[in-house]
């Protein structure tokens, strides 16, 4: 049991940024409107995620640390209409097998509690002040997996990955107020006013946002909205292309390609635009259970979506030229 957690940890917890991703996803799944992340030393010494969500009920608190004890899927059929970001029940047990985890949570009328888990075992469970929501602190990541620890890069690199993760979450959910702090330095703060352009402004800065154009297209199956700016010599990077599908950040080469195809005839080859697209589609047409990171998805009608995206992007550039 403990070994299987460690094996799963190898897949789910690659580096500090993966811990941040899983914890923030849980906070989002708990319908939080405010999520604050604090990291120290690139997340290797500590990661704290604080939310104002639903909290965890007393009877679910211990089981949250057991493998596959997700509270989010109740039947097999749920797997085909996943509305939450998490569903595998793997993250918390995996993280707790390679770090010290402290959970403080309070749900509605229930009593607040603080639970500490180390090496996969609960070492403390005491009452805590009744603050609505959840706080999870992860300390000394990979303390018991030296091989993994050795693989970590500099604090600066790990922090960069964490920053990417939180930026994407903020872009995925402009309606949630996000904060990221690194050793008491503010890295990101969004207002949560459901205004994508304002979040883009926080992430990329005014100069980029000034050049951004609105993209919009829809068909029977899909709705696409977002913003795009032409690449410049200074900024041309694949990582500036963000695709959000039903509120989930995804990596989908076909869609990235579709964006490139959209402007290919008008702009230099090998340059990547800065783009953030929100795609909405019927969850039944999406399979997110492809990889433990849940970033890769399989889409039905992928070609049709590709064409829609290409057309929408192309239209923006053509109008710009006029
Ligand atoms: P999953 O997200 O796949 O269900 P996790 O291991 O990430 O599994 O989390 C286990 C369970 O712990 C979740 O199903 C949820 O019930 C609970 N949980 C974890 N974090 C939070 C949070 N921030 N707010 C509310 N519940 C949480
Ligand atoms: Mg989860």
Write the layout of secondary structure elements.
Blueprint (H helix, E strand, L loop, with lengths): L1 H11 L3 H14 L4 E7 L5 E6 L6 H4 L29 H7 L2 E7 L5 E7 L2 E8 L4 E7 L6 H6 L3 H18 L4 E6 L2 E5 L6 H9 L1 H5 L2 E6 L3 E8 L11 E5 L2 E3 L2 H12 L9 E8 L4 E2 L10 E2 L2 H20 L1
This protein binds adenosine-5'-diphosphate and magnesium ion.
Can you describe this structure?
The protein has helices at residues 2-12, 16-29, 58-61, 91-97, 146-151, 155-172, 196-204, 206-210, 253-264, 302-321, and strands at 34-40, 46-51, 100-106, 112-118, 121-128, 133-139, 177-182, 185-189, 213-218, 222-229, 241-245, 248-250, 274-281, 286-287, 298-299. α1 packs across α4 (91-97) and α9 runs parallel beside α10 (302-321). 33% of the residues lie in helices and 27% in strands. It is built from 10 helices and 15 strands. The N and C termini lie far apart (64 Å). The strands form 3 sheets. The chain has an 8-stranded mixed sheet with strand order 5-4-3-6-2-1-7-8, with helices on one face. It has 2 domains: 2-189, Histidine kinase-like ATPase, C-terminal domain (Heat Shock Protein 90, 2-Layer Sandwich), CATH 3.30.565.10; 206-321, Ribosomal Protein S5, domain 2 (2-Layer Sandwich). It is elongated and about 65 Å long. Residues 22, 26-27, 30, 51, 53-56, 60, 64, 70-72, 86-92, 134 line the site of adenosine-5'-diphosphate. Magnesium ion (MG) binds at residues 22, 25-26, 86, 91. It comes from Alkalicoccus saliphilus. Residues 200-318 form the DNA mismatch repair protein S5 domain. Keywords: DNA damage, DNA repair, Endonuclease, Hydrolase, Nuclease.
């Amino acid at each position: 049991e403990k070994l299987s957690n460690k094996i799963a940890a190898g897949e789910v917890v690659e580096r500090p940024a993966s811990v941040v991703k899983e914890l923030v996803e849980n906070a989002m799944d708990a319908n939080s409107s405010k999520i604050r992340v604090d990291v120290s030393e690139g997340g290797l010494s500590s990661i704290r995620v604080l939310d104002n969500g639903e909290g965890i009920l007393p009877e679910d608190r211990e089981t949250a640390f057991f493998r596959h004890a997700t509270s989010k899927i109740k039947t097999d059929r749920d797997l085909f209409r996943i509305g939450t970001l998490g569903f595998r029940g793997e993250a918390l047990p995996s993280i707790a097998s390679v770090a010290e985890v402290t959970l403080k949570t309070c749900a509605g009328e229930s009593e607040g509690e603080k639970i500490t888990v180390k090496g996969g075992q609960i070492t403390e469970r005491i009452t805590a002040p009744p603050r609505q929501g959840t706080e999870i602190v992860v300390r000394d990541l990979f303390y018991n997996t030296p091989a993994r620890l050795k693989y970590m890069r500099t604090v600066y690199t790990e922090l960069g990955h964490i920053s990417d993760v939180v930026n994407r979450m903020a872009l995925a959910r402009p309606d949630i107020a996000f904060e990221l702090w690194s050793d008491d330095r503010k890295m990101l703060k969004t207002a949560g006013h459901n205004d994508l352009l304002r979040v883009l402004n926080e992430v990329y800065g005014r100069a980029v946002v000034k050049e951004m154009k609105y993209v919009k297209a829809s068909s029977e199956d899909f709705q696409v909205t977002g913003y795009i700016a032409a690449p410049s010599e200074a900024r041309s990077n694949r990582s500036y292309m963000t695709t959000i599908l039903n509120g989930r950040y995804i990596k989908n080469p076909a869609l990235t390609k579709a964006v490139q195809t959209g402007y290919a005839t008008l702009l230099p080859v090998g340059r990547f635009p800065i783009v953030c697209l929100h795609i909405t589609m019927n969850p039944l047409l999406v399979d997110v259970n492809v990889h433990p990171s849940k970033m890769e998805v399989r889409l039905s009608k992928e070609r049709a979506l590709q064409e829609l995206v290409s057309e929408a992007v192309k239209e923006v550039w053509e109008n710009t030229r006029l």
